[in-house]
Amino acid sequence: MSYAVKEMFVTLQGEGAQTGRASVFCRFAGCNLWSGREQDRATAACTFCDTDFIGTNGEGGGRFDTAEALAATIAACWTGIADESGRRYVVFTGGEPLLQIDDALIAAVKAQGFEIAVETNGTIAAPAGIDWVCVSPKPSSTLVQTDGAELKLIYPQPDLPPELFEKLSFRHFWLQPMDGPDRIANTQAAVAYCLRHPRWRLSLQTHKLIGIP
Ligand code: SF4
């Protein structure tokens, strides 16, 4: 199988329980809940996406014919981090990364010494071997991946109240204010909800706050 990667870069994870951790971000092209084209947004299952995941033309992007080739490129990206004292860490994101991640890729990336995280919309079951599964449920879709390390709910979404998810098997439950023109009001609403429901914690997109990718 070949893999289509929109972009790949080294940064700090900006969200959730791994915030601040040095990471290779590998953004796969394509999503099953939106084509990525503006003319399709109104009729898509997921309508608030702020990510460009079309094509393979981003920084570090490309088409990789084998799992080993993609894993080697991820490892080369990590060497941009001078100090190797921390465990190598790759975040597979998208788009929807589970459209492309398979056993061969997991094995090849592990062979390069990486811990693997995935950020998924939860509509596809995660294969075994992923160390950190972050699920961010979206409307008009069926949640298949119902366990993992963290559940990150973009808030508010009228069709997806937090109560729908709090009994699922995740270690961390995050509310992340929806970005966009109502970001301040959404943040206030998320803070208020977390204060009333301490099972949920506030997740901020800290990379945006400090201006890193
Ligand atoms: S599921 Fe994620 S990647 Fe896909 S359209 Fe929604 S926010 Fe974007």
From TrEMBL:
Instruction: List residues binding substrate.
Output: 12-14, 27, 93, 213
Binding positions (Mg(2+)): 51
- Per its Swiss-Prot or TrEMBL entry, what cofactor is needed? S-adenosyl-L-methionine; Mg(2+); [4Fe-4S] cluster
Pinpoint the Radical SAM core domain residues: 18-213
Q: So what does this thing catalyse? A: 6-carboxy-5,6,7,8-tetrahydropterin + H(+) = 7-carboxy-7-carbaguanine + NH4(+)
Under Gene Ontology molecular function, one entry of this record is: S-adenosyl-L-methionine binding
Residue positions annotated to bind S-adenosyl-L-methionine are: 48-50, 95, 136-138, 176-179
Q: Which InterPro entries match?
A: 7-CO-7-deazaguanine_synth-like, Aldolase_TIM, QueE_Cx14CxxC, rSAM, rSAM_sf
The protein's job, in short, is:
Catalyzes the complex heterocyclic radical-mediated conversion of 6-carboxy-5,6,7,8-tetrahydropterin (CPH4) to 7-carboxy-7-deazaguanine (CDG), a step common to the biosynthetic pathways of all 7-deazapurine-containing compounds.
Which keywords, in A-to-Z order, does the entry hold? 4Fe-4S, Iron, Iron-sulfur, Lyase, Magnesium, Metal-binding, Queuosine biosynthesis, S-adenosyl-L-methionine
Q: What is its EC number?
A: 4.3.99.3
* Primary gene name: queE
One Gene Ontology BP term is: tRNA queuosine(34) biosynthetic process
UniProt subunit comment: Homodimer.
- Which protein, by its recorded name, is this? 7-carboxy-7-deazaguanine synthase
Q: What's the superkingdom here?
A: Bacteria
Annotated source species: Gluconobacter albidus
Provide the family line. Belongs to the radical SAM superfamily. 7-carboxy-7-deazaguanine synthase family.
Residues reported to bind [4Fe-4S] cluster: 31, 46, 49
Taxonomy, top ranks, is:
Bacteria, Pseudomonadati, Pseudomonadota, Alphaproteobacteria, Acetobacterales
Q: In which pathway does it act?
A: Purine metabolism; 7-cyano-7-deazaguanine biosynthesis
The cofactor remark states: Binds 1 S-adenosyl-L-methionine per subunit. Binds 1 [4Fe-4S] cluster. The cluster is coordinated with 3 cysteines and an exchangeable S-adenosyl-L-methionine.
Class of this enzyme: lyase
